[in-house]
Amino acid sequence: SSSSSSSSSSSSSPSSSSAASASSAAARKEKQEDRKRTLPEDGLTLADFARMDASTQQSASYASLQQQQQPSMFAASEAQEVVLPKTFFVETTGCQMNVSDSEIVQSVLMEAGMTPSETLEAADVILINTCSIRDNAEQKVWNRLDYFRSVKRKRSSKRYLKKHGGNARPPMIGVLGCMAERLKQQIVESDKDVDLVAGPDAYRDLPRLLFDVVSTSQPAINVLLSLDETYADIKPVRRVTNRTDPSKNLSAFVSIMRGCDNMCSYCIVPFTRGRERSRSAQSIVDEVRLLSEQGYKEVTVLGQNVNSYNFIDVEAGTKVPLSETREAKSKGFYNISKRRVHDQAVSFAELMRRISDVDPEMRIRFTSPHPKDFPDELIRLMAERPNICNTIHLPAQSGSSANLERMRRGYTREAYLDLVERIRRVVPNVALSTDLIAGFCGETDDEHRDTISLMRKVRYDHAFMFKYSQRERTHAHRRFEDDVPTPVKDARLREIIDTFHEVALEKNQHEVGQVQLVLVEGNSRKSNDDLAGRNDGNKRVVFPKQPLPVVVAAGGDGGERVPEVGDYVAVRISHASSVHLKAEPLEITSLVQFHVDHHNNTQMSQSTSSTDDHDIQAATV
Known about the structure:
This protein is of the alpha/beta class. Helices cover about 40% and strands about 15% of the residues. It has a six-stranded parallel sheet with strand order 2-1-3-4-5-6, with helices on both faces. A five-stranded mixed barrel has the order 17-18-19-23-22. Helix 10 links the parallel strand 5 (about 195-200) and strand 6 (about 220). Helix 12 (about 280-295) runs parallel beside helix 13 (about 350-360) and helix 17 runs parallel beside helix 19 (about 485-510). The longest helix is centred in the last third of the chain and has 30 residues, at about 590-620. The chain is globular.
C-alpha cells in the first residue's frame, strides 16, 4: 500500500503534488494547534457586562473559563506533595493604580506564605504588573519579558543547577494587569516562557494559579472581570517610598474604586478593568485612619474615574435603578453611559469630607478625575479644607469641540473653560494639570491649534502629553481611521510639549516671592546638602539643608533643628524653572499652623499672580 502510494505520488502532476504538499502542511498546522493549550477568546465586552446582573455575569464567565482551565489544585490527590515557590518579585509599570494593585498582590502572596525577594534575579516567581494604555507601554513590557526569559534560561542551565544543588529550579514568569487582560492569548503563545497570566480582578487567585503551574507544568490563566471586586478587605503591603530614610512613612495610595464606565473612544481601560464599582466608604476611612496612626503624612485617593465614586450600601441582589438622564455633576457636561442612582449613596465630595476629618495634618490628594464629575460641593470643600491639596488633574485631551465629540468626552471646549473659571473663582490658588493627546483620528491643523490655544488660556501647572496610539476593541478602532501620519503626530506633540514648558515657566516665575508649605521627602537628587519636597500644588521644591526654628505647633520649644523627612517647612520661593522651584527655608511648622499664619498672605499673593497671569494670557493668546 505504501509503495503504491509512493508510486502514485511520484507520477503525479505538479498541480497534484502542490495539493498534496498543501494538505500535508495543513495537517501539520492542525497537529500543532492540537498541541497548543486551549485559551479563551477575547471574552465578554463591557456591553455584555452591562446586560447582566452579578450572578449571571459570574456564571457565564466561569462557564467559558472552565473550557480552558486545568483541574483545580484542591482536587489533586498529590496536592500535599507540591512545593510552592518561596519568594517573589513584583515589577510595576504604568499608572498609580498599578502601584496600588502591586501592593495588593504583595499582600495576597505574603498571606500565602511567600516572601518578597530583594532582586528579580533571585526570585522564585517574577511578576510584572502591566499597562495597555499605549503601544509604547506594551513594547516596554515585551522587552522586559525578554530579560525575564534570559534569567529563567540561565537558571535552567546545567551549570547553574550543578552549582546550586538539585532542588534549584528556574523562576516562574507571570504577567499581571491590563496587558494580561488585553493580550492573554498572545502572551501565553509567545516565546517569552510566561507561566501565569492574571487580570486586574484576579489577584486573590494568584496562590491557586501558582499551585496549578507547579502541579501541572502548564500555564495558568485567570482574566475574569468582576462587577464587585474592590479588594476592600485586603490590607496592602506598602512599598518603601523614601530613599533618604526608608523607615519614615510618608505617602500612600488608597484605591477607592475600580473600573470605568466612560467609554471614551480612544481608551482601552473599560475593557481591561471592567465596570465601575466603589469600595465601602467606611473601609476607606478606616484605611486612611490606619495610615495616619502609622505616621503617613500624605494620602492619594485613586480611581480610574475617581470623582465618580458612588458607594451604594444595599443588600446583595437589590436592584439599583439607572438614572433617567445622562446629565453629569458638572454644569454643561454629560455622561456617555447612564449611572446608578440611590438617595443614600455616598458621593465623592462626601467621602473627601470624611477622609479629611481623619487627620488635619495629613495631606489628601486625588487622581484621576473626569471633568464631568466636579460639582460645586466638591470645589467648595477643597477651598474650606486646608489638608485637601489645592491641585486638580483636569484631563482635557483636546482643545477642539469637534475632536472632543469624536473622543466621546462628554463636553465641549466652552464647557471645559467654564469649569476652569468656576474652580479658580472658588480656589484661586489651584494648580491644574491635564492630559493631552496629539494626532487623534481625523484631527485637523485647526483642531490642533485649538489645543495649543486652550493650553495658553488655561495655563497648566503640569501636563501629561502623548501622541495617539490606537487600541483594539475601542470605539475609535471600530469606527475611525487612525489617519494622522506619524510625522505629523510627532510634530504636533513637540509643539504641545514646547508650549507647556513655555507657559509653565512663565507661571512658575510668578510664584517667586511667595511663601509656600513644603512636605519634606528627603535629600535632593543632585546634592545631599539640599532637601526636596512638594508644595500644595504638587510642584517639586528644593531648598538648602540647614537648622530652622521650630514653631510650637510642630513640637518646637524655641530651639532649632535640621528638617527631617515628613516635616512641613515654610519656604519662600526664590527661583523657578518650568518643572521645579527653588526656595529659602523659613521655619519648621505644621499644616494647620501654616494655614493660620500664611493663608491670608498667600491668597493675596495668588490673587495678584492671577491678575498678572491674565495680562500675560491676553498678550499670548
